[in-house]
Amino acid sequence: MIPTHYFLILSAILFTIGVCGVLTRRNGITIFMSIELMVNAVNLTFLAYARQFHQLHGMIFVFFVMAIAAAEAAVGLAIFLSLFHHRETIDVDEANLMHW
After folding, report:
1. Where are the domains of the chain?
2. HEC string of 57-94?
3. Of 67, 68, 71, 51, whose CA–CA distance to 59 is shortest?
4. Contact 36, 73 (CB under 8 A)
């Protein structure tokens, strides 16, 4: 059986990679993927603690977070498609104004 702290270390590494991706990238989709990576790192932490403490609450919480993340992905990609349609770029520096 894999110890819980291995999962927590992996989760911290994934979260750090996600934060670095958000802070250093300019492409909107890359930033979006980095945010999803951070959400998945937090989900991994919830699952590790749920397994350690033999609780179902963490797994239920992860289920709801994943459902919300799926809806967020659909809305986010629709925003990026609209942005690309109107501005022909998804660079966040060029798309910081909300008018067309």
Report:
1. 4-87
2. HHHHHHHHHHHHHHHHHHHHHHHHHHHHHHHCCCECCC
3. 51
4. yes
What pTM did the predictor assign? 0.87
* Packing angle of the helix pair 28-53, 57-87 (nearest 10 deg): 180
CATH, domain range 4-87: 1.10.287.3510
The pLDDT tens digits along the chain (100 residues) read 899 999 999 999 999 999 999 999 988 889 999 999 999 999 999 999 999 999 999 999 999 999 999 999 999 899 888 888 887 888 877 766 655 5
